[in-house]
Each structure stands twice: as structure tokens, then as C-alpha cells.
Write a structure and sequence with these properties.
9 strands; carbohydrate metabolism; 4-stranded antiparallel sheet; about 230 residues; 1 helix; globular
Length: about 230
Amino acid sequence: MKASTTLAVLAAAGAQAHYTFPGTKYNGVAQPQWDTVRITQNHYSNGPVTDVNSALMTCYERDPGVGAPNTLAVTAGSTVSFQVGSSVGHPGPLHFYMAKVPAGKTAKTFDGKGAVWFKIYQDGPSGLGTGSIKWPSDGKTEVSVQIPRCIANGEYLLRVEHIALHSAGSAGGAQLYLSCAQLSVTGGTGTLNTGQLVSFPGAYKATDPGILFQLYWPTPTSYTNPGPAPVRC
């Protein structure tokens, strides 16, 4: 099969594999959908954000300014999961960002705007250069991240983001699936250096090498995640 035909088939199949991140899971307990996660504009369609300059890049909210009904209490150093509806159906990197809620706001009322976000996790592919690239999140029905032990106590937004690269060979082709959970964190040491804070939109450009990316042909030999490096305790 010619490469162009292969890409067309893959793109058509990809349209049937969209997904959301509608709920959190903590200490083995799954929260109801859209209870601690802000309801997203794609909660019915499962469709992605494709414009990295869109205001939807913040939390993809259906109702900006409303917030989720509840805030999840977690301990620094513990693991928080997002349920996936229904599974991660496209290849690409998984990222997690956090933003500390400023004084005078709560996790429910904070809009997440401005240079407030720091990255706490990113992954990358295996099999580069082989024509058989795999991503850790492929097919997952749940994705998880550890909250840094050295984080300051307080309320935060936790932003999950998966970038689907199956049609990212042209500008605007990458598909971003994301949502934001509301957290209240205790037990942190407060010693974390958050480093470079970024904004959404603003952190990415459509031409960033991790956004504009030929996944299938020519066979890629490297991948550069967009955005800042993850923070470390």
C-alpha cells in the first residue's frame, strides 16, 4: 500500500477514536464524571482542540467561570488518575500541568489564565526509527500522575493533556484532548521551584516540532515534547 493511501486510511480511522477525561480517581475511588473535573466542550462529541491559540486550550471548558461542583483533596506525593472516556485512541504524548490558585480565588473560581502553569509530567515514544512507534498511553482507560512531594500546600488546577499526532503532519493537524481537575493539596514541603511558568493558550505554537510532526513517513527518529521541561523536586 502506498504511503499516501496508508495515511488516508489511518486518518479516517482516527475520527472514530476521540476521547475525553471526564473524572478523577484517587486512592482507588473513582469520582463521578464531571464532579471534580470541569465539564469540557467536547463532553458529547469527544472532539479535540486543534487551534493551539484558542481560549479552549486552558481547560476546554463548556461553561467558563462555573467550575466543577467539587474539589478533590489529595496528599503531596500521592497519585491522581484521570478516567478516559473511553480510551486513548490515538498515538501521542501525555502531559500533566498544574497551576496554583492565587489568593482570593478557589479551585472552583480560578480561571487558569495567564502564565501560571508548570509541567509535572511528560512521556515520549519508544521505537523511534523503527517504523513501529509506541506511546505509554496507547489504549489506556486511565492515566495517572504523581503530585510532587515538594509542592506548596493549597488549591490547584491539574490539567491533563494528550496530543494526538496521527494527522499532525500539517499545521493545525495535531489534536489536543484535555481537561482540568480541581485539587486541594496538603502534606507538601513547599520547596518546589516551579521554573518557567507558561500560559494556555500561549505555551505552544502550531509549528513547534512536538505539534507539527510527521508520525508515519518519513519514519521519525526523534521527538521533542512541546512546552517547558517537567519540574523536579
